[in-house]
Specification:
Blueprint: E1 11-17, E2 22-28, H1 34-47, E3 58-62
Parallel strand pairs: 2-3
Antiparallel strand pairs: 1-2
Length: 67
């Protein structure tokens, strides 16, 4: 019997926000630059109406297809 090993299609790019006490995880096909990560987080926060995640919450964001 052969075990089929699947490669992960997404990489976790993590950012810890100590001020708001939350974690952002940006899922992408590759390791993102700091600018790409923060831009993705900023766009997601704008989509949420400027509201930050609750204290202790982890916000998982799927990066755009171009990233």
């Amino acid at each position: 019997m052969t075990i089929d090993r699947m490669k992960s299609k997404s990489i976790e790019n993590r950012v810890v926000d100590e001020i708001h006490d939350c974690i952002y995880v940006v899922m992408a096909k590759r390791i993102l630059t700091d600018g790409e990560i923060y831009s993705t987080i900023r766009v997601e926060l704008l989509r949420r109406g400027g509201k930050f995640p609750a204290k202790g919450e982890t916000l998982v964001i799927a990066a755009e297809k171009g990233l």
